[in-house]
Specification:
The complex is a heterodimer of chains A (about 325) and B (about 270). Chain A is built from 14 helices and no strands. Chain A has helices at about 5-35, 40-45, 55-65, 70-80, 95-130, 135-150, 150-165, 180-210, 210-220, 225-250, 255-260, 265-275, 280-310, 310-315. In chain A, helix 5 (about 95-130) crosses helix 12 (about 265-275) and helix 8 (about 180-210) packs across helix 10. In chain B, helix 9 runs antiparallel to helix 11 (about 240-265). Chain B is mostly helical and about 270 residues long. In chain B, about 45% of the residues are buried. Chain B has helices spanning about 1-5, 10-25, 25-30, 60-100, 100-115, 120-130, 135-160, 165-170, 175-210, 225-230, 240-265. Classes of the chains: A mainly alpha (about 325), B mainly alpha (about 270). At the A-B interface, helix 1, helix 6, helix 7, helix 11 and helix 12 of A face helix 5, helix 6, helix 9 and helix 11 of B.
Chain lengths: ~325, ~270
C-alpha cells in the first residue's frame, strides 16, 4: 500500500466522519424544530410566571428562534466552528460548560467499567476456552447467556436493592462523583458488557489453540501455561482492542439508563433531563459530543490496530 | 413429526414462544383482575393469595398488569421487527440491484447511522417527539434500519451476478418479477434469521425507552414503564420492580434461545 493510497483512505475516512456529524446534527435539529411543544414557553413558564405573548416573541427573537429553519441550523453550525455551542435554556449556562460538568462523571464511570470488564471477562473467557466443552465451559456460557438476556437497568435496580438498601454497603444515590457511588453502576455495566467479551475471548483463544505454532510449542515441550501466556495471549489482544474501543465509545455516550438508575451525575443523566425540559441546544450539543467521541475513539482503535499488527503496518 | 425429532431443542423453544404468544393474545382473559382498575383501599399490598405479585401505588394487581404487558411489549416488538425487515428489504434491494446514485446516497446514510451509538439517538428522537408507543417504534426504526439494509444489499449484490438472474434478464423477465421470484425468496431466510435474533434486543431497547419515560405512557401496562413506576417504591414495595423486570428477562431469554435455534435450523452453515 503506497503513501498516496493511505492518505486517500484517511481523507475518505475523515469525509465520512464529517458527513456523519452533519447528518446526525441535522437530524436532531430537524426533530427539535418539528417537535410539539414550545421551548420558549417551557423555559419562561418553568420560572412559575405567566408570560405575555410579547415577552414570548421577544425571547424567541433573542434566541434566534423566529428565523427560518435553515438559517437557525446555519447559525448553529457557525457557532460550533467558533467553539460556541449556544446557551442551555434550562440551566442558563453555556452548553459547553454544562456538558463538561457531566463529562467527569461519565469518563470516570467508563474507565472503572472497562477495568471491571477486563477483570471479569479475561479469566472467564480463558477458563472456558481451555476447558472447552467441559462443565466449566458450559457454566460460563450459561452465565453469559443470562447476562445478555437480562435488562441492565433491572440488574442495576436489583443490585441497588440488595447492596444499597438491604446490606447498606453502597449509597442509594450519588449526586456527586464519589468512589463508593461508582462501584455499583460500574459493576452493572461491566456485567452486561462482559457477556460480549467472554464470548470473544473464548473464540479468539480457541482459534489460536488450534494453530500450528501451538502444536509446535507443545512438541518442543513447553508447558501449557507458558504457551498460553507467551504465545496465545499476545495474539488475542488485537480483536479485543476493537471491542474495547467500541465499548468505550458506547460508555462515553453516557449510558443514560444506568446513570438514571443510580442517579449518577454523568452526561447521560443530564441528557435525559435536557430532553424532558426540551432544552434543545443542550440536546444538540449532547448528540454532537457523542458523535465526535464515538468516531474519534473508533479512529484511534483503527490506528492502534495498524500499529499493533506488523502485517498491517507494513501494508502487506 | 420427523422435524420435531431432529430439531428437539428448536421445537421446545418454539413451544415456549407459542406459549408467550398465547399469553399475549388472550391477556384480557388470563389476567385475574382488570389491569387498569385502581383500588385505593388496596394500595401497595405485599404479594398474597389474592394478589399473587402484590399491588402498585394505585392498588392495581401487578400480576394482571404483567400479563397485559405481554401484549403491549410483544405487539411493539413485533411491529418494530417487521418494519425493520420491510425497510431493510426495500432499501437493500433498491441500492443492491439498481446501484448508481440511489445506492450511494442510501449507503452513505446507512454508514452514518452505523457509525453512531444507536441507543443514544433513539433516546433523543423518542424524547423530542414525545413519549408514545408509536414514537418509540419510529425512533428505533430510524436508528435500526441501516443494519438490515446493509445485509440485504450485500446478499442482493452476490445474487445479481448469478447465472439464473442473468438468464431471467436475457429472457426479458420484467424487473419486478425478477425481484419477486428470484431475489426476494433468496434474501428472505437471512432476514428472518436476523429479525428473529433481534427480537430480544429490540424488546429490551423498547423497555429501556419506556423506563426513561420516553416510551409507553401511564396507565399503559408496559414492563419498562412499570419498572420506572416501581423504582420509586424500591424501599417499601420491591415486588413492583422485581417482577416486571423478571418478565422482561424471561421473555427476552426465550426469544434469544429461539432465535439462535432458528438460525441453526435455517442456516446450518453458520457455526
Amino acid at each position: 500500500m503506497g503513501e498516496v493510497e493511505k492518505l486517500n483512505r484517511l481523507a475518505n475516512r475523515l469525509l465520512q466522519m464529517l458527513i456523519t456529524l452533519i447528518g446526525v446534527s441535522f437530524l436532531t435539529f430537524c426533530l427539535a424544530y418539528l417537535a410539539p411543544g414550545d421551548p420558549v414557553a417551557m423555559l419562561l413558564e418553568s420560572a412559575d410566571t405567566i408570560v405575555s405573548e410579547e415577552v414570548l416573541e421577544k425571547t424567541r427573537a433573542e434566541l434566534g428562534l423566529d428565523k427560518p429553519f435553515l438559517v437557525q441550523y446555519g447559525n448553529w453550525v457557525v457557532g460550533i466552528l467558533h467553539g460556541d455551542m449556544g446557551m442551555s435554556y434550562s440551566a442558563k449556562k453555556p452548553v459547553f460548560e454544562k456538558l463538561s460538568e457531566g463529562f467527569v462523571g461519565t469518563v470516570l464511570l467508563a474507565l472503572v467499567t472497562i477495568i471491571f470488564v477486563l477483570i471479569i471477562s479475561l479469566p472467564l473467557g480463558i477458563w472456558s476456552a481451555v476447558n472447552q466443552n467441559k462443565w466449566q465451559d458450559y457454566l460460563v456460557r450459561v452465565l453469559s447467556f443470562i447476562g445478555v438476556s437480562m435488562p441492565n437497568f433491572w440488574l442495576g435496580l436489583i443490585l441497588l436493592y440488595i447492596f444499597g438498601l438491604k446490606l447498606g454497603w453502597f449509597p442509594i444515590a450519588s449526586s456527586t462523583v464519589t468512589l463508593q457511588g461508582i462501584i455499583l453502576p460500574a459493576i452493572t455495566l461491566a456485567i452486561y458488557q462482559s457477556t460480549k467479551y467472554v464470548r470473544q475471548v473464548r473464540t479468539v483463544i480457541l482459534d489460536e489453540l488450534h494453530q500450528d505454532y501451538v502444536i509446535g510449542a507443545r512438541a518442543r515441550g513447553l508447558s501449557e501455561s507458558a504457551i498460553l501466556w507467551k504465545h496465545i495471549l499476545p495474539n488475542a489482544v488485537l480483536p479485543l482492542i476493537t471491542l474495547l474501543g467500541m465499548s468505550i465509545g458506547w460508555l462515553l455516550g453516557g449510558v443514560a439508563v444506568i446513570e438514571i438508575v443510580f442517579s449518577w451525575p454523568g452526561i447521560g443523566n443530564m441528557a435525559v433531563r435536557a430532553i424532558m425540559m426540551r432544552d434543545y441546544p443542550l440536546i444538540e450539543g449532547f448528540v454532537l459530543w457523542i458523535a465526535v467521541a464515538y468516531m474519534f475513539i473508533n479512529f484511534l482503535v483503527d490506528l492502534s490496530y495498524s500499529y499493533l499488527d506488523p502485517k498491517l503496518r507494513k501494508g502487506i | 413429526m420427523e422435524f420435531i425429532k431432529t430439531h428437539k431443542l428448536f421445537s421446545f423453544y418454539t413451544l415456549l414462544v407459542i406459549l408467550i404468544l398465547f399469553v399475549a393474545i388472550f391477556a384480557p382473559y388470563l389476567a385475574p383482575q382488570d389491569p387498569y382498575e385502581s383500588n385505593m383501599r388496596n394500595v401497595l399490598q405485599t404479594p398474597s393469595a389474592e394478589h399473587l405479585l402484590g399491588t402498585d401505588k394505585l392498588g392495581r394487581d401487578t400480576l394482571s398488569r404483567i400479563i397485559a404487558g405481554t401484549q403491549v411489549s410483544l405487539f411493539m416488538t413485533i411491529c418494530l421487527v417487521i418494519l425493520l425487515a420491510i425497510v431493510g428489504i426495500v432499501v437493500g434491494i433498491a441500492s443492491g440491484y439498481f446501484g448508481g446514485k440511489v445506492e450511494m446516497v442510501l449507503m452513505r446514510l446507512a454508514d452514518m447511522m452505523l457509525s453512531f451509538p444507536g441507543v443514544v439517538l433513539a433516546i433523543a428522537i423518542a424524547g423530542i417527539l414525545g413519549g408514545s408507543i408509536a414514537n418509540t417504534i419510529i425512533a428505533l426504526l430510524i436508528v435500526g434500519w441501516a443494519k438490515y439494509a446493509r445485509l440485504v444489499r450485500s446478499l442482493v449484490i452476490k445474487l445479481r451476478n448469478n447465472d439464473f438472474i442473468i438468464a431471467a434478464q436475457v429472457n426479458g423477465t420484467k424487473t419486478i418479477n425478477i425481484l419477486r421470484r428470484h431475489i426476494l425468496p433468496n434474501v428472505l431466510p437471512m432476514i428472518v434469521i436476523t429479525g428473529a435474533m433481534d427480537i430480544g434486543t429490540m424488546m429490551m431497547e423498547i423497555a429501556g425507552l419506556s423506563f426513561l419515560g420516553f416510551g409507553a405512557q401511564p396507565p399503559t401496562p408496559e414492563w419498562g414503564l412499570m419498572l420506572n413506576e416501581g423504582r420509586q417504591y424500591i424501599q417499601t414495595a420491591p415486588w413492583l420492580m422485581i417482577y416486571p423486570g423478571a418478565a422482561i428477562f424471561i421473555v427476552v431469554a426465550i426469544f434469544n434461545l429461539w432465535g439462535d435455534a432458528l438460525r441453526d435450523v435455517l442456516d446450518p452453515r453458520q457455526e
